[in-house]
Structure formats: structure tokens, C-alpha cells
Specification:
4-stranded antiparallel sheet, 3 domains, Ribosomal Protein S8, Chain: A, domain 1, alpha+beta, Alpha-Beta Plaits, disordered N terminus
């Protein structure tokens, strides 16, 4: 049995004993009373005035603590929890209120389980198999034209220049009067090869051209798969293959509750952390590719909600479209306890009113 539970049981015994002794000392023959149910103060002591207090809690969930206090009060207090503000509304005699406040003072403290989830360091890896043809680099180009263009003409131009086209979009919104925007996404060996393809698309002007480097993390030592725990490496290679590489890497602190938005490889990541009850940590993770080209929608890589705990790795598998081909990948999140200094860890005095 936990020390906290022992304390609650002990207080219950003392409170019950106190009521019995007070009856005996008064020489009262306690008549049989009908049992009282629910959460309402007893009318056995009409000479004592009842008062209502609002008690603000810092650590203990109001709905959980109210159940304990109702059991301890033995029908001599009305206790209503307000989970939204984490406060208790207590109506009882002054004596019983002071007894219950002492219980609140003892229990409403920062426990180690909550402390561990308050300060965490995160390491996040995005792992995938590299493209089979490393000579081709992904690109996105926006062309401006005075009229729409048949898709077949673009594909023919790409084939002649040995350019892989994955996406072809046309739109005339936001381009000005009598103007059409053409977006082409794909892979090409070089800028010169891409120019050869664009030269075969008449009456077109390049508005934007972006090349994407999806393997920039290969030069970051701490981002290598070899830095993962050995058993985790074996697990990842079992499902993704021996050639798996890190496509994105991020590290940092995130408080609970808290939220972070940061680039991770060629994508953007949003991660939210919040506590559930007193010990569980819930992570909401979303990774997407934000397009910088007009009228090209966001591409979502993954979106998931998982339960987490410091010291246990999280693996989230996904599939995504990569310029016309399906790619399997996995997000790996490592959580490590990052305890605050002793001066920072000391909780402030609880507020009572």
C-alpha cells in the first residue's frame, strides 16, 4: 500500500475516533439514526454554523481528491469539485473544515510521477529508405502562361529530357488577369536537364523554382540511425531494411502541457504534450509538407496520438507519396527525464482562500 493511501486511511480512523469520543464524553446514548447517503453535511450538530470555502488545488485533480474527502467527512461536509479550475467548493463546520484542509495540505503536493513528465528532453527521428536513384533530385516549378496546357504535352517534354513528373496542377486564381499558373513536381538530374524540359513548353515563364534536399541529415552525426539503442536499430531495420536513413531530426525540451512547431527534414512538425490524470503523458504528433507554391495543398505525412513515458521509445509507422512513388517510413521519439534543479523543483506554497 502506498504511503499516500496509508495516510488517508489513518486520517479516516482518527476522524472516526474523534467523533466517537466526543459522543461518549458528552454522556449521550447515541440513538439509532437513519443512514445518510450522498454528499451532504449532517445535521447532528445544529449548534455549529456551516461555512463555504473555495479551495484551489495545484497538483491533485479536484474530482479525485473530492471523492477522498467526502469519504473522510462521514457526511459532515458537502464537497463539490470544479475540474475546469481544479478547485473544491467545501461546505462544513469550521472544525471539520480545518480537519479536511490538513488532509488537502498533505495530499496536494507534486508527486515524482508528475514531476517526471513535467521536464522531458525529446529526440525525434524521421527514418526512411533512400530513393533508388540518388542522381535524381526533387523539384517544384511554377510556370506562368496565358492559357492552360494539355497534360500530355508536359509529359512528352519530360520524357524527352529524362525528367520524372509526379504532379501537374493548373489554376488561374491569384495569377492576375488572363494568367494561368502551372505547377510541376517531380525529379530531375540537374538544373540544366530541367531547363531542357521547360524549353519544350511554349509560351511559359518560370515564376518559382525550388529544389528539395531530402538527405541533408546525412551529415549530422547525432542524427544517424547508429545513435539509436541497438535493439531499436534492429527493430527498425527489420521493417524498413538495412539501408534505412534519417530524413529528419529534431531535439529539444517540451514542457507538459506544451506545444512545439519546428522543421524536421523537408517537413514541418507539430507536437503537443499533455498529462492525462496524474501519471500518463499523451503526445499528439503531426508531420506535413507545407507547400510554398500557390494553390498547392499541404501534404500530410502522419498524424497520431500516443501514450508516452520517459525511457520508452515511441515508433509511429507511415506511408507517404514521394513524387509518384510510395515510401514507407517511421517516426521514432525518444523521451528522457530532465529533472529541474532543486531550487526550481520546490513547489510554491499552495494558495488557500
Amino acid at each position: 500500500m502506498k504511503m499516500q493511501d496509508l495516510f488517508v486511511v489513518g486520517v479516516a480512523i482518527l476522524l472516526a475516533a474523534g467523533v466517537s469520543l466526543s459522543q461518549q464524553s458528552a454522556g449521550l446514548a447515541a440513538p439509532a439514526q437513519p443512514s445518510q447517503s450522498g454528499n451532504a453535511p449532517s445535521s447532528s450538530s445544529p449548534q455549529e454554523d456551516l461555512a463555504t470555502r473555495i479551495i484551489k488545488l495545484r497538483y491533485y485533480p479536484a474530482d479525485e481528491l473530492s471523492s477522498l474527502l467526502i469519504a473522510l467527512s462521514q457526511g459532515e461536509a458537502t464537497i463539490i469539485p470544479d475540474p475546469h479550475s481544479n478547485q473544491l467548493i467545501m461546505t462544513a463546520s469550521e472544525k471539520r473544515t480545518q480537519e479536511l484542509l490538513r488532509v488537502v495540505e498533505a495530499l496536494d503536493v507534486a508527486s515524482m510521477s508528475v514531476q517526471e513528465t513535467q521536464y522531458l528532453t525529446y529526440r525525434v527521428y524521421m527514418l526512411e529508405l533512400p530513393s533508388k536513384d540518388q542522381s535524381l533530385k526533387p523539384f517544384t516549378v511554377l510556370l506562368e502562361r496565358s492559357s492552360p496546357l494539355p497534360a500530355g504535352q508536359v509529359l512528352d517534354a519530360a520524357k524527352d529530357a529524362n525528367v520524372q513528373v509526379a504532379t501537374f496542377l493548373q489554376n488561374n486564381e491569384g495569377m492576375g488577369d488572363d494568367k494561368w499558373g502551372l505547377v510541376i513536381e517531380g525529379r530531375a538530374a540537374s538544373n540544366d536537364v530541367l531547363k531542357q524540359m521547360l524549353a519544350k513548353i511554349p509560351d511559359s515563364q518560370v515564376r518559382e523554382l525550388k529544389w528539395r534536399d531530402e538527405n541533408f541529415t546525412s551529415a549530422i552525426a547525432v542524427a544517424q540511425v547508429s545513435r539509436l539503442p541497438v535493439q531499436l536499430q534492429e527493430h527498425i531495420r527489420k521493417f524498413l531494411g538495412d539501408q534505412v536513413q534519417t530524413m529528419g531530426y529534431w531535439f529539444g525540451n517540451l514542457s507538459v502541457p506544451g506545444e512545439i512547431e519546428a522543421p524536421i527534414g523537408p517537413w514541418s512538425m507539430v507536437m503537443k504534450a499533455q498529462s492525462e490524470q496524474r501519471t500518463s503523458l499523451v503526445l499528439e504528433v503531426r508531420v506535413a509538407r507545407e507547400s510554398q507554391i500557390p494553390f498547392v495543398p499541404q501534404t500530410q505525412v502522419l498524424s497520431n496520438t500516443v501514450q508516452a513515458k520517459a525511457g520508452r521509445p515511441i515508433i509511429i509507422g507511415y506511408n507517404r507519396d514521394a513524387y509518384g512513388t510510395r515510401v514507407m517510413g517511421a517516426m521514432v521519439i525518444l523521451l528522457e527525464s530532465d529533472a529541474p534543479a532543486a531550487s526550481e523543483a520546490k513547489p510554491p506554497e499552495p494558495e488557500r482562500r
